[in-house]
Amino acid sequence: MQSVTSRQNPRLQEAARLITSSRDRRKTGKCVLEGEHIVAAYVERYGAPEVIVVTDEALARPAVRALVERHPERVLVVTAKLLSELAVLPADVGVLAVVPALRPGPAAAADFCLLLDDIQDPGNVGSMLRSAAAAGVGQVWMSKHCAFAWSPKVLRAGQGAHFCVDIYEDVDLAGWAADFRARNGEVIATVAEGGANLYDARLSGRIAIVIGNEGAGIDAALLAQATQRVTIPMPGGMESLNAAAAAAVCLFECVRQRLARHA
């Protein structure tokens, strides 16, 4: 482990740039994981991060010390004050890791997919990824104008989901959906009104759930590829749900039906 007291340390500066600059994240294909939980999830699945930054206060915790001692040659030890001077972080984040943003290679569509169409709020994207991972979704396909999946806010909301599901960005979703249909897949579009009752729809086959932008809904070209349109019944009188909440409801209705089929 290397103790660092200077803000000019190049590896520390790189971590700070990646936290604050979306341009640097996209250009380098790297991101910063924040917090013991998400860093540990990465290490368990993929091994050593490029750099681990840990505060001396956090290093005193046995679980954190055990985590960083797995790859001591990658560790920079800093004061909490120095870390706070480099970037704005949530309170009590004592561990950071610089890692490559994972880019899965070309693959056939999974049997259970989630399509995100222009979901621009990072918190919603992260929450949807977390719900998708919990529901057993194999792949998440995201359109060009979605929030960057590897931004700090998305990673925080995802809570490790990024390492449990394959994420594809900048996808032509209408073209993808057309191909999925041609290969006997069902494209299930969620719409605020006018669709079939979600709980009456058949969702237990090879399916892709589509969630659209909260304001504009699903792009017309993508909506045209839907084999079903479903609406979540809301007897309480609200016009709509938050997009992340709607995604969770739909995904776990799929889970319910899949479990029922195998009961």
**CATH architectural designation of the largest domain:** 3-Layer(aba) Sandwich
CATH fourth-tier homologous superfamily of the largest domain: SPOUT methyltransferase, trefoil knot domain
Distance from first to last alpha carbon:
52 Å
Give the % helix.
25-40%
Report on the architecture of this protein.
With 263 residues, the chain is of the alpha/beta class. Helix content is 38%, strand content 19%. The chain folds into two domains: 2-100, 60s Ribosomal Protein L30, Chain: A (2-Layer Sandwich), CATH 3.30.1330; 112-261, SPOUT methyltransferase, trefoil knot domain (Alpha/beta knot), CATH 3.40.1280.10. It has helices at 10-20, 22-28, 36-46, 56-59, 62-68, 80-86, 122-135, 152-158, 173-182, 220-223, 243-261, and strands spanning 2-3, 30-34, 51-55, 75-78, 95-100, 112-116, 139-142, 166-168, 186-190, 196-197, 207-211, 228-231. The strands form two sheets. The chain has a seven-stranded parallel sheet. A five-stranded mixed sheet has the order 1-4-3-5-2, with helices on both faces. Strand 6, helix 7 (122-135) and strand 7 (139-142) form a beta-alpha-beta unit. Helix 1 packs across helix 2 (22-28), helix 7 (122-135) runs parallel beside helix 8 and helix 7 runs parallel beside helix 11 (243-261). The protein is elongated and about 60 Å long.
